[in-house]
Amino acid sequence: MLNLSQRLILGCLLLAATTVGLLVAVRSALSAAGAWSLGVALAVCALLLCAATIYSVLQPIHRLATSSIAWIGSAAMRSGRLPAS
After folding, report:
1. Model pTM greater than 0.90?
2. Burial 64-81 (b: 16+ CB within 10 A, else e)
3. Burial, 15: exposed, middle or buried (Cβ in 10 Å; 0-12, 13-18, 19+)?
4. What is the per-residue pLDDT across 6-62, written as a single tens digit (0 to 9) for each?
5. Helix (H, G, I), strand (E, B) or coil at 35
6. Average pLDDT estimate for 67-74
7. How many other CB atoms sit within 10 Å of the CB of residue 62?
């Protein structure tokens, strides 16, 4: 079972992969219509949005994890359980 952030990341990756797959599948039609550069630009935007969404999901989790570890370490040092180095 995936947690919420894992499901969001998986959804973003599947959406980006589908966008790139669609671009590859219709490349001949886009080239014939003269819209290949537009298709590539939209696919790149989808990939950038995917990366930004994943970053915005993982950054607060990472920040919380590192601050919790630092807080636990400083509390242990104040209580005398962990020697200061």
Report:
1. no
2. eeeeeeeeeeeeeeeeee
3. middle
4. 999 999 999 999 999 999 999 999 999 999 999 999 999 999 999 999 999 888 888
5. coil
6. 66
7. 10
Distance CA 6, CA 11 (A): 8
Q: CA-to-CA distance for 16 and 12, rounded, in angstroms?
A: 6
Domain ranges within the chain, ordered by starting residue:
4-79
Q: Which tokens belong to 42?
A: 């939209």
Backbone angles phi, psi at 49, to 5 degrees: -65, -35
Quote the DSSP letter at residue 20: H
pLDDT band at 72 (very low <50, low <70, confident <90, very high): low
* Residue 76 DSSP symbol: H
